[in-house]
Specification:
Blueprint: E1 23-27, E2 30-35, E3 43-48, H1 57-68, E4 72-76, H2 94-99, H3 107-121, E5 125-131, H4 133-144, E6 150-154, E7 171-176, H5 184-197, E8 202-207, H6 227-244
Parallel strand pairs: 3-4, 3-5, 5-6, 6-7, 7-8
Antiparallel strand pairs: 1-2, 2-4
C-alpha cells in the first residue's frame, strides 16, 4: 500500500503545444472536451483523465486519436470544477486532496455523460478508457455500470478496488513492467482474482521496461527503445475497443 501514490508522473504525456481538435462543451453540471469524427457514428468512448485533470493536453491527444479511429470521444471534468493536481503541489497534501476526488464516486457524472452521448450525439455503443486515477475509475464502472459495453484501464491504481473482480463487461488492463506506483505483485494478484471470479472476457498485459504513464508520454520524452511499446499500447487499446464496440 505504501508506494501506490508516490509522486505520479502522469503529466509527462504528449504535453507538447497541443490544442486539440475538439471543443469544450457544457454537459449538465460539468464541462467536457468533445471530439467527433467527420463521418457519423453511433460508437463513443468516455475518456477518464488522471490526477492532472481533463485539460491535460496528453489526454486530449489520446481522445483525438480515438476520434481519428472513428469514435466520438468525450473527456469530462470528473473533478467537477475542483482543481486538478499540479506537479508543483506539495505531495504531503496529496491524500487530503484525493479524499474529495474519489475514483469510485463518479456515477452521477457518468450518467449525465451517457445521456448526453445518447441524446446529443446519437451514440448507442459506449465504452470507457482511463489513465491512473481514471484507470481505477474504469475498473469501478466495469464492476457496476450496465450501460457501458467495454473498458480499457491504463495503469489504473489496482488497490482502490482490490477486493472486487466480478466485471460486468470485457475489460483490458494495461500496465508497465517498471511502474513505481503499481508493483508487479499487485498485477499478479489482480490476474489471479480475475481468473477466479470474472465471467466476462478480460486481458491483463504488462509492457516490458515501461514506467507509469507510458501510453500518453510526451513526444520529446520518448526514448527510441520505448517507442514500440508506447505504439503497441495505443494500438492494443484501439483494437480492444474495435472488438467490443
Amino acid at each position: 500500500m505504501a508506494n501506490e501514490w508516490r509522486p505520479c508522473p502522469c503529466d509527462i504525456g504528449d504535453r507538447f503545444d497541443y490544442g486539440g481538435r475538439g471543443q469544450e462543451v457544457e454537459v449538465g453540471h460539468i464541462k467536457a472536451y468533445v471530439c467527433k469524427p467527420p463521418a457519423s457514428t453511433d460508437k463513443a468512448v468516455i475518456v477518464i483523465h488522471d490526477i492532472f485533470g481533463w485539460q491535460l493536453p496528453n489526454t486530449r491527444y489520446i481522445a483525438d486519436m480515438l476520434t481519428a479511429n472513428g469514435y466520438i470521444a468525450i473527456c469530462p471534468d470528473f473533478f467537477v470544477g475542483q482543481e486538478a493536481w499540479k506537479p508543483s503541489n506539495d505531495w504531503a497534501s496529496f491524500d487530503d486532496w484525493l479524499k474529495t476526488r474519489e475514483a469510485g464516486k463518479i456515477d452521477k457524472e457518468v450518467d449525465v455523460v451517457l445521456k448526453y452521448l445518447k441524446d446529443q450525439c446519437g451514440a448507442k455503443k459506449i465504452g470507457v478508457i482511463g489513465f491512473c486515477w481514471g484507470g481505477a475509475a474504469v475498473q469501478h464502472l466495469m464492476l457496476k455500470n450496465p450501460h457501458l459495453k467495454t473498458g480499457v484501464s491504463l495503469y489504473g491504481v489496482i488497490s482502490r478496488f482490490e477486493d472486487k473482480h466480478s466485471l460486468l463487461h470485457p475489460t483490458f488492463f494495461i500496465f508497465g513492467e517498471k511502474d513505481d506506483i503499481i508493483p508487479l505483485e499487485q498485477v499478479t494478484l489482480l490476474e489471479q482474482k480475475l481468473k477466479q471470479n470474472c465471467k466476462v472476457d478480460y486481458e491483463v498485459k504488462i509492457y516490458p521496461g515501461q514506467t507509469h504513464g507510458f501510453v500518453h508520454r510526451k513526444r520529446e520524452d520518448i526514448n527510441p527503445q520505448d517507442k514500440p511499446y508506447i505504439e503497441e499500447g495505443r494500438r492494443d487499446m484501439i483494437n480492444w475497443l474495435n472488438k467490443y464496440l
